[in-house]
Amino acid sequence: MNRLAKTLLLTATAAALTLSAIGEASAGDHWHHHNNGNAALVGGAVGLATGLVVGSAIASQPRYYYDEPRYIDPPYEPEYEAAPVYRAPPRYYAPVRAGLEPWTPQWERYCSYRYRSFDPSSGTFIGNDGREHFCTAG
């Protein structure tokens, strides 16, 4: 709201409060049968005018809509395409065997120490995938 509208609003509010106080003070004299009906009409008119001023001030405020498009960073696009990188394929080596043959006491000891779920009767253990695997010492 601009400064002039605020000043007019405060002035109208002060006038309405003053006139309504005068109207209440003179309303106590109603048994004298003076013709003070005009004060009530003036107070009502000032209240109506104040309401109109306040209502129009509220209605004239700018509205903000948040559905407007917002700035979003564009996707990153490099200025040039990177050259492909060629790497040698990985080398796979056979595991080093400990030399323990299945079903020997050393093999059973090794597997029971290595796997908590080792079953010596079947020679298997439960892996992380939940399935049984045969223990190979190596």
Describe this structure in words.
Helix 1 runs antiparallel to helix 2. Strands 1-2 form a two-stranded antiparallel ribbon. A hairpin with a 5-residue loop joins strand 1 (124-126) and strand 2 (132-134). The protein starts with a helix and ends with a strand. Among the domains are: 3-59; 105-134, no CATH class. It has helices at 3-27, 37-59, 105-114; strands at residues 124-126, 132-134. The protein is mainly alpha-helical and 138 residues long. The mean pLDDT is 75.
Task: Please tag this protein with its features.
mainly alpha, 4% strand, 138 residues, 2 strands, two-stranded antiparallel ribbon
Brief overview:
With about 140 residues, this protein is mainly alpha-helical.
Category from helices, strands and their pairing: mainly alpha
How many strand segments? 2
Strand order of the largest sheet: 1-2
User: What low-confidence regions span 5 or more consecutive residues with pLDDT below 50?
Assistant: none
Helix-strand pattern, N to C?
A: HHHEE
**General form:** elongated
Mean pLDDT: 75
Percent helix? 40-55%
Number of contiguous helices: 3
Tell me the fraction of residues in β-strands, as a range: under 5%
Tell me about the largest β-sheet. Answer: 2 strands, antiparallel
Gyration radius (Cα, Å) is: 47 Å
| Span between termini | 84 Å
Oligomer: single chain
